[in-house]
Structure formats: structure tokens, C-alpha cells
Amino acid sequence: MGVIIIVKIFITQETRKKWGMLNTIEKLNVVAEHPAVGAKVTGVDLRKPLSEKLAQLIREIFFRYSVLCFPGQKINDEDQARFAALFGFVDRNDRSKGDPDNKQSKRGVMYVSNIREEGKLIGVLPDGEMHFHSDGAHREKPYRATTLFAIEIPITGGETKFAGMAAAYDALEGGLRSRLDKLEARHVFNYNKTTRGEMRHDNDVAHAVHPLVIIHPNSGRKSLYLSRLMTSNIVGMEHEESEQLLNHLFDHCEKTQFVYEHKWAPGDLMIWDNRSVNHARNDFPSNQRRLLRRYTVSDPDN
Ligand code: OGA
Ligand code: MN
């Protein structure tokens, strides 16, 4: 299922002299990870700024596969922020609120980690399983994409699962699809709650309403936009009927035929499209360290 894409980059005589570079061909290897979603991309070093041509190619690959993994990267904060910015707006504002000990203050970076220093968590989303969700679904303008870079990874567990919501939509029976096309759902988010059972659904938690089926602005494909963790109810529907339909759809889109499960290795940089995939996390032992660096990508007008 591998696709090899060769990009020719033409550089001027002057640049060539400056970089001492004779070889002007870069090779990107793209290998699909799963029929529904996900591809591995090698042949690019993300420590360096990319040419506009290569950046455009990577965006096209992203819109096609929705989840990309770039293994073996040695990137720092800056490199990851620059990569994320290829896809939209990256918030670089300081969020330390004056706390000099806050490791997450610098230029919008966040850590996903269970590591505690002096009893204090150094990151967010620390422990265990997380149900399927889409980052920012509780906001008026959800995040376009999320990037995660693996620094420390447990030996067992902690895999991230990605559900292809366009393939899940396409596989539904036609009558149900056109019924869903007309519906809207409400999504909620409670800080650090990771399962549907724990999630509070009242009006005091952050929430937003979105269409149940959304059209991707780049690929034009329709996707189911709902998730076990965040979707509280279908607007205007009786509680029981809404729960029944939602649970049917949660079970449907979490089937293995739509889900790529990613086993992390340090150096993996992943990006996923929150408009066409849901993601979830498997449980992992709490005594094993897990540390990933996270940048989200928003719409530029956010
Ligand atoms: C996230 C997230 C999953 C993981 O960063 O938004 O859901 O595997 N992470 O840690
Ligand atoms: Mn998430």
C-alpha cells in the first residue's frame, strides 16, 4: 500500500554554494497504516524549515490520510511549532500567568504527561485510558489539528487510537446518513475527565453545538462529528432516543475497520485532523513515565 512521492526541488546556484548541496532531490516516503486512516511519512527532517512546495505536498498528504506519523524526528519546541503552523494558526502566547515555574508557559506549548515533580503534575491528561473524542469540540471553533511529539513512552500500553470518521460515515446505510445530515449535537468538556461516565453534562461545563455531519473544507468529504467522551446529546431529541442513537454511532465508528492504533516510539511526531478523526488512548501502567509535547492548530481567524 506504499506510495512513493518524489519531490524535485530546484535551487539557485547561489543557494547551492551556500549550503554546499549538490543533491537537489528530496524523497518523501508515504506508507498507509490502515485502510481508513493514517500514514507514516519518512524522508523529511523537520528540524529544518520546509520549502513551500514540500509544505504543500505534506498538507495534501495530510488531507488524504487525516493522521500522519513522522518517526525518528529530533525536533525541539520551535521546530514543532513551525511544523504545526504549516496547517493553520499556532498560539504562541505566554500562558504562564506570571508563574516562572510553569514549564508549559513558553510559547503556547503543553505537555501531556503523568510525570510528577515534587508531587505536582508537569502536564495535562496524565493517567490511563481516554475515551474517543475530538479536541476542542466543546468550543465554538474547534481545533483544526493537534500535533504530539513523543519524548518518553511506557513499555506497555498508552497507544493512541484514531477513528476515521469519514469512512465511518460512508459505511452507514443511506437512509440513516441523510437523517444524520440534518441533525446537530451538543459537545461538552470537563478538564481532565477522560471517560463518558465521569463527564458532567450540565450547562456549567464548557459546551458548544455543531452539526452531526461536517464537510471537510479541503477534502470535501463528509465525516461524523460526535464522540463518546464529548457528545452529550442530539439537539431537540428526547434523552432516551438521543442516547440510543449516539451509542449506536459510537459503537459503529469505534469498530476496528475504521481505527488505526498507534504504538508510540520516542521521536514520533504525529498530527491528526480533528475534523475527520476521533482519537482515544489505551490504559497504561501509572508507574511508567509518559511524556509528549503538544501544539494545537486553530483556524487563522480564531
Ligand atoms: C491529546 C490527547 C492522547 C494521548 O493530547 O489531545 O488526547 O495519547 N492525547 O495522550
Ligand atoms: Mn485529545
What would you report as the Rg, rounded to the nearest angstrom?
20 Å
- Unreliable stretches, pLDDT < 50, 5 or more residues? 7-25
Physical arrangement of strands within the biggest beta sheet: 1-2-3-4-17-9-19-5
Provide the domain count: 1
What's the shape?
globular
CATH H level: which superfamily? Clavaminate synthase-like
Count of DSSP E strands? Answer: 19
Strand fraction equals: 25-35%
| Quaternary organisation | single chain
Number of H- or I-type helical stretches:
6
The helix content, as a percent range, equals 10-25%
Reported for the largest beta sheet, the result is: 8 strands, mixed
The molecules bound to the chains, other than polymers, are:
N-oxalylglycine, manganese (II) ion
CATH architecture: 4-Layer Sandwich
Mean pLDDT: 89
Distance between the first and last residues' Cα: 37 Å
Quick one: CATH class?
Alpha Beta
